[in-house]
Design goal:
Bound molecules: manganese (II) ion
Number of domains: 1
Strand content: 15-25%
CATH topology: Arginase, Chain A
CATH superfamily: Ureohydrolase domain
Helix content: 25-40%
Oligomer: single chain
Order of helices and strands: EHEHEHEHEHEHHEHEH
Number of strands: 8
Radius of gyration: 17 Å
Length: 296
């Protein structure tokens, strides 16, 4: 190991010095106006970047790729409109549109709608691998149609994602039966946290591969998919979730898919303890880069 120690590195993602878009471009989205419970995901991008510096002192130990050495840039945070969800989604969409392969750091999950609008314009309806405690297919959240719990209701309605190639993992929150039934009726594959625990990561990964097939696929990782023991720093925690290692093992089983982008959302550092949640989020983005670069 040469150069400065990890704690002394600059606070960009994986301490990359590059600021202009590259093969893989990281951007933060400091926005949380659509959260329905405790707020604070606006501070997620900074915390994830800071924690990511732990991951630059060697190669990924199974992919044997060092994501920090890829053609990687961190362009900083995208512009948001204070308190204005539609304007923020429009700003995200136009900022994301020209970026070839974006890794977004949230921010609340609602902003994924802007990212998917930008990407699907290029790819057509995407396959989706969605880690979450919640289905996020509510038509509204307490009367707000663009809350963080509505992102995939709109993504399906706008045909940004193909629900028959969409799989949700880690689901376990309370949910209205009509929302649940609507989600299944669209063709979404919903895998509860309990099913993930009982089947094990290898079986789950092979099921995900079957659902996704060869379609261009997006990874949306809500950090609350992880159990609060592994990710306390989030706005809507639910017990009984995935362990960090389970999510890692599932991701490592998803090589060779046509990955088109990813986000990691809902890190709210004010509720975090010892950077557990921020490090988990940074690591999921790092796993993704190893996965995609290993595929090439
Ligand atoms: Mn979510």
């Amino acid at each position: 190991m040469a150069g400065p120690p990890t704690f002394a590195l600059p606070c960009s993602f994986l301490a990359t010095p590059r600021r202009a878009p590259a093969t893989f471009t990281v951007a933060g989205i400091p926005f949380d106006a659509g959260t329905t419970n405790r707020a604070g995901a606006r501070d997620g991008p900074h915390a994830i970047r800071r924690a990511s510096r732990m991951l630059v002192d060697g190669a990924h130990p199974t992919a044997w790729i060092d994501p920090a050495t890829l053609d990687l840039a961190d362009i900083g945070d995208l512009a948001v409109a204070l308190g204005d969800i539609p304007a923020t989604l429009a700003a995200i969409e136009s900022a994301a549109a020209p970026i070839p392969h974006l890794i977004a750091l949230g921010g609340e999950h609602g902003v994924t709608l802007g990212l998917l609008r930008a990407l699907a314009r290029r790819t057509g309806p995407l396959a989706l691998v969605h880690f979450d405690a919640h289905v996020d297919t509510w038509p509204d959240g307490f009367g707000q149609p663009l809350s963080h719990g509505s992102v995939f209701y709109h993504a399906i309605a706008e045909r940004l994602v193909d629900p028959h190639r969409m799989v949700q993992l880690g689901i376990r929150s309370p949910v209205q039966r009509d929302v649940w039934d609507w989600t299944l009726a669209q063709g979404v594959t919903v895998l509860s946290a309990q099913e993930v625990h009982e089947a094990g990561p290898a079986a789950i990964a092979s099921l995900v591969r079957e659902v996704v097939g060869h379609a261009p696929v997006y990874l949306s990782f809500d950090i609350d998919a992880l159990d609060p023991a592994f990710a306390p720093g989030t706005g809507t925690p639910e017990i009984g979730g995935l362990a960090s290692w389970q999510a890692q093992a599932i991701l490592r089983g998803l090589q060779g898919l046509a990955w088109a982008g990813m986000d990691v959302m809902e890190v709210a550092p004010a509720y975090d303890v010892a950077e557990i949640t921020a490090l988990a989020a940074a690591t999921m983005a790092w796993e993704y880069l190893a996965l995609v670069a290993g595929t090439k």
